[in-house]
Amino acid sequence: MPILKSLGVADPKVPRAGTLPQRSSQNPFEEVSGLEEEEAGELGTLPNGTSCRRRTTLEKLAGLAPFQLGWAPGRRAGSPGDGQPRSFLGRVLPPGLRRSSADFGLLARLQGTRAQGDEETAGEAARRLAFLRLGRGPKPRRASLAERVVPAGEAAPEPPPKVPEPPKMKEPLSGRRGPGAARKLRARWAEAVARAARERLEAAAPGAPGGLAGQLEALRARLLEDMAVVRGRLAPAYPAGLGAFGVYLRGYHGALAEWLGTSARRRLPLADRYALLHWHNQVYPREVLGLVDMVALENGELGPLLSPGTLRGLEDECVTDVKAQTRAALLRVLQEDEERWGSTEEQPSSLAQDVCELLEEHTERAPRISQEFGERMAHCCLGGLAEFLQSFQQRVERFHENPGVRELPPDTYISRTIGLVNCGPPLRALAERLARVGPPESEPAREASASALDRVTRLCHRVLADLLFQELQPHFKKLMRRKWLSSPEALDGIVGTLGAQALALRRMQDEPYQALVAELHRRALVEYVRPLLRGRLRCSSARTRSRVAGRLREDAAQLQRLFRRLESQASWLDAVVPHLAEVLQLEDTPSIQVEVGVLVRDYPDIRCKHVEALLDIRGLRNTTARQEILAVARDLELSEWGDLSPPRDRAFFADIPMPRASFCLSLPLFLGCLPVSRLARPNLACLPRPRPPSPARPRARR
C-alpha cells in the first residue's frame, strides 16, 4: 500500500507543466485515487513488491530528480552501512524500501538547498509539502520512562490523574461581537482616527505662508479635502451602523481643537488674535461644518473648539491692546497735525480721516467675530475717542489764545479755523455710531465727545464771526442816522461784505456751515437792531415814524434775500425787524398792544425795558397809553412765556444791552424802581437815572 494511504490521506493530483488541472468530481480525494491508479500501471512495482506510484507523485510535487537515500539516525557519516536505508530501530532496509520520515526529511532538505528553479514551481512545492505534513497525522506516542523500567509481566502503575484545565474564553472574531468589547474596540478605532487626523493637520499648517491666518486657511482646505475623501470613499466601506463619517469628523474636530488651544496659549500679536477669533466663530462653523453632513453625528452637535474662558481671555487681550495702541496712535496723529496749524503753507488737514481709520479698523472687525465682542470693542474705542477729543479741544483753545497766530495772514488763519471745524462732523458721526453699537454704559463717553466737539465748533464760529464783524463794524455804525434814512450805502456795504466772505465759508462742511450762517444771520440782525434800541433816532412826527418804518422793512427784505442765498435756516429771525417797524408805525393803542404781544410771544427773551425803549423812539409820551402797552409786555413777561428761556442759538434780545432804569424827580427815591403805572400823577416825566459821581482825580501840577 502506498505511504499516503497508510496515513489515511491520498496524494493530490499535480498538473503537468503547461496544463491546468481539470476537476471531474466534487471530491478531490477521488481525483487523487484515480491519479494513483493511472500512474500505477505506468511505473510498475518495486523489487519488494511495493508500488512505485508514491515516488512518482513526490517527484511531480517537488519537481526533483529521484530521491537520494538518507542516513539512519544514530549513525555517523562514513560508518558501515552509510547510504543504506534503515528503519527507526537502525536496521538496514531491503533495497528499494525506505522510511516515510526519510522521504519528508529528504524533501525538506532538498527544498532548502535548491540552487535554481522556477519561483512558481517552488511555491507550489511548498504548498504540497504542507499538505503532505498534514496527511501524516500525529506522531506515534512513545513509551514513558515508567513503562520502560517496569519489568516484563508486571502491570505498569497508573498515571497520576490529570487536573482539568479551566476552559479558555474564546475572543469573538467579529464586532458582534461581547458587551464591553464593542465599546473598547470602537474607542480604539476612534483613537486611531484621531491620531491620523492630528498628523494630517500638523503636516498641513507649518508650511502655509501668511502667518496664523495662512495656517488657518491651510487647515480649512485640508479639512474639506479629507472630509470629502471620507464621505466618498471610506464611509461607504463601513457598515452603516458604525457611523464612520461621524467618527472621522469627531477625530478631526478634536485634533483641530488641540491645535487651536496650543496656538491660543501663545503670546500672539493683535492681528493673529483677530484671525483666530474670526476663524473660530465664523469661518469654521460656516465654511467647514456648514458643508459637511452634521446629521451623520450620533450624539448631536460637536463641542466648541475653544472653551468660553479661552475665548474671553483672547477678547480681553484684544481690547487691552486696542486701548493702548489707539491711545498712542491718536496722540501721535494729533501732535503731527498741531505742528502744521501755525504754518503759513496751505496743507489740508487729514486729522479726522486718520482718527476714523484708526478706530474703524477695530470697530468693523470685532462685530464680524461676535455681537458681544463688537459691543465691547465699540465701548473701548468710544472711550478712547472721548479722551482724544478732550485733548483736541484743549489744543484748539490754546491755538486761538496764542497771540502769535494773529500774525498769520487772514486767509491762512481762516483756512486753519475752517479746517478745525471740519474735523467735527466725521468725528461726531463716529461717536454716535459707536454709542449705538456699544452697551448702555457708553452714553457718558458719547456725551463727553459731543460736548468737546460743540465747544470746538462754537469757539471756531465765534472766531470767524468776530473777524467778519470787525470788518463790518464801520458799516453798522452808519445805521440809524439821518443819512441812513435817505441812502442805502450802509446796508449795501454790509450785504456786499457778507456775500464776499460767504465764498470762503463754503469750504466748511454742511453741518457746521449751516450753524455758522445761522449765527451770522442772528448776529447781523442783533447788530442792526442794537443802534435802534439805543435811541439814535427820535420820531417826533407821524411822517418820520412812517419813513423809519418803511426803511426798516426795506432793509429787512434785503437781509432776508441775502441769507436765503447763503442758505440760512434761521427763518425765525425774518420777522423781528418787521414787528419793530409795525410798533413804530401803528397809531392806535390796541393795535400796538396786539403787535407787542406777538413780539413777546415770538421772542420770549424780550423784556419791558426793550419795549420802553421802543416807545421812547416812537415818541409816545402819553402816560396812559404807554402804561397800557407796557402792561401787556409785563403780563406776558410774568406768565409762562416769560419763564421760557430760549436756547442759546434762539436768543436775540438777550444780546442787546438793556436801557438804564429811570426814576421820577417828584417822588421819593425809593419809588424810582416802581413801574410807571403805579404812579399817582401821570404827567411826570421819567428821566434817566443819574450816574454816581466819579472819584475826584488829582489835578496835574503846573
* Largest sheet features: 2 strands, antiparallel
- The strand count comes to 2
Based on the structure given, which CATH architecture of the domain at 478-641 and 649-655 is correct? Orthogonal Bundle
Q: Helix amount, in percent?
A: 55-70%
Percentage of β-strand residues: under 5%
Low-confidence stretches: 1-43, 52-83, 87-91, 96-117, 130-136, 661-702
CATH structural class of the domain at 478-641 and 649-655: Mainly Alpha
**CATH homologous superfamily identity of the domain at 478-641 and 649-655:** Exocyst complex component Sec6, C-terminal domain
Region (Disordered): 1-52, 142-181
Protein name: Exocyst complex component 3 like 2
InterPro entries: EXOC3/Sec6 (IPR010326), EXOC3/Sec6_C (IPR042532)
Biased composition (Basic and acidic residues): 165-174
Could you explain the architecture of this structure?
Among the domains are: 185-306, no CATH class; 313-337 and 347-457; 478-641 and 649-655, Exocyst complex component Sec6, C-terminal domain (Tetracycline Repressor, domain 2). It has a two-stranded antiparallel ribbon with strand order 1-2. The protein has helices at 3-6, 28-43, 53-62, 100-113, 119-136, 145-149, 179-204, 211-237, 244-264, 270-288, 308-338, 351-369, 371-401, 410-422, 424-437, 443-476, 482-486, 489-505, 510-533, 542-565, 576-585, 589-602, 608-618, 623-638, 640-643, and strands spanning 662-664, 686-688. It is 61% helix and 1% strand. By secondary structure, it is mainly alpha-helical.
Please write out the topology.
Blueprint: H1 3-6, H2 28-43, H3 53-62, H4 100-113, H5 119-136, H6 145-149, H7 179-204, H8 211-237, H9 244-264, H10 270-288, H11 308-338, H12 351-369, H13 371-401, H14 410-422, H15 424-437, H16 443-476, H17 482-486, H18 489-505, H19 510-533, H20 542-565, H21 576-585, H22 589-602, H23 608-618, H24 623-638, H25 640-643, E1 662-664, E2 686-688
Antiparallel strand pairs: 1-2
Helix pairs in contact: 2-3, 4-5, 7-9, 8-9, 8-10, 10-11, 10-12, 11-12, 11-13, 12-13, 12-15, 13-15, 13-16, 14-16, 15-16, 16-18, 16-19, 18-20, 20-21, 21-22, 21-23, 22-24, 23-24
